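Cephalosporin-C deacetylase
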Amino acid sequence: MPLFDLPLAQLIDYRPDVAEPADFDEFWSGTLAEARTHTTSVDVAEVDSGLTHVDVFDVTFPGFAGHPIKAWYARPAGVADDLPIVVNYIGYSGGRGLPHEQSLLPSAGYAYLKMDTRGQGYSGNGGDTPDPVGSDPAASGYLTRGIADPAHYYYRRVFTDAARAVDAARTLPGVDPDRVIVSGGSQGGGIATAAAALVPDVAGAMIDVPFLQYFRRAVEITASLPYAEITNYLAVHRPAVDRVWETLSYFDGVNLAKRAQAPALYSVALMDPVCPPSTVYAAYNAYGTGTGVPAAVSKQIEVYGYNGHEGGAGFQVAAQLRWLADLLR
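Predicted structure tokens:
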């Protein structure tokens, strides 16, 4: 894939004016307040992962509307200390996978919570969380489910699940509740952005090649899925254009990133047709700049100039381990 987006010199200062609804904060504060009225306990059960150096637990916690959301909780075996925890969100179509796959961060000395994404989990080693909510007609995939109304949009449920995952992580045995870091790549990066905005006292955010950022530009410059789901929907539902963009403005990563306060490590790939670099930079440059956010939120971005959506892969994992050690030292 060749370079197709703005040159890096322009991306560094790219700050587009992304539409934001007047009731954005009220929408999200009301959503979270309702979700937190569901006080179902967080269930934690140890599983036999076959690993000797990592303990793994099957977790169920209440998400949007109290719906049960699955996760894996993993931590170094034999360690009794309250540890920092990384809450991880999953890329599009993925699920939480299998217990023995959750060992990397515990091997580095951290606790780890991997949240299942409701209704997905149809790739990799699968997921276990259904989405009990239906929707109006939609294009294939998840991006247009409930897109006619922000109250019914799919990602309202997912982003609320993500915030509630942070709440749940803070109650887990052996976790330091003041040292919760959110993380994810692609869709997971978009969800992590939302979590950092909706729970602004998290300790950090690791956001890789994020999806769900500056929807309108992404749809206009890339034909790649999943953004093409929106294109396909609008090609059929011609009168719905304005309503669709209004709905998406409540979920745009640029608007959410403004409200984040935690230190952040981003990554971007300049040949990425799935999550175009200008959409990543739009969110990165907005991160921590909103009204009322303390000045000088710490952030940095790793740039992979000749990579597509795979981004930095293992090189970015190494960068994250260094960044985490510095952050939590």
